[in-house]
Amino acid sequence: VSHPERGRESAAQQLNPVTLPPRLVSGRGIRLHLPAQVWACFRNQVNEQMSSCSSTKEPVLTAPVRETVEKSPFLALTTLSGDGRPHTIAVAKVKEIRGSDTLVFGVYKMVRTRQNLAETGGLQVVAVNGQAGYRLSGKATATAEEVTLTVDGVEALL
Q1: d(CA 120, CA 108)
Q2: How many Cβ atoms sit within 10 Å of the Cβ of residue 116?
Q3: What pLDDT is stored for residue 2 in this prediction?
Q4: pLDDT score of 43
Q5: What is the spatial distance between Cα 25 and Cα 133, in angstroms, rounded to a whole number?
Q6: Is the Cβ–Cβ distance between 151 and 94 less than 8 Å?
Q7: Which among 5, 33, 60, 156 is most buried, taking Cβ atoms within 10 Å?
Q8: For the chain, how far is it from start to end, CA to CA, in angstroms?
Q9: How wide is the angle at C-alpha 39 spanned by C-alphas 21 and 140, nearest 5°?
């Protein structure tokens, strides 16, 4: 961190902006000269902290969403390959709902699905039952026995 009036700050102040003097934080002319990798790490840490700020985090899978997922006659799962090609499959049901944000699916073949998850990790699930429908998005991992989706977004469709 450099400031026209003060010069270079200590390494500790560079890593922890909370320790900067108030006039540097609110003042003009602050310039950060950090490598792109440091910025990427910083952004990831901020995003993680922002997502875990609230100790009373609302459940992602609310009762209506859970009911729709459980009662849907089939679920559509869509992944993207590393080069951006979508791949959609249909599964008969969700194997398990864990906690307030995780869906588990049993694996029957799913060769391309598991390959895409290894490349990109993104998964969307569409569930429709009667007049209720939802698109669930998040990050997923696959093993030989199951695909586990941690849902970070739910969008009503109907």
Answers
A1: 20
A2: 23
A3: 45
A4: 61
A5: 46
A6: no
A7: 60
A8: 50
A9: 130
Residue 114 pLDDT > 80: yes
Total number of residues shown for the chain: 158
Is 131 exposed, middle or buried, given 0-12, 13-18 or 19+ CB atoms closer than 10 A?
Answer: exposed
Q: What is the pLDDT of residues 75-112, one digit of tens each?
A: 999 999 999 999 999 999 999 999 999 999 999 999 99
Using the CB atoms, write b or e for 41-76: b if 16+ within 10 Å: eeeeeeeeeeeeeeeeeeebbeeebbebbeebeebe
Residue among 95, 64, 87, 73 nearest 158 (CA): 64
> What's the token pair of residue 24?
């540097």
Residue with tokens 């599964």: 91
pTM: 0.64
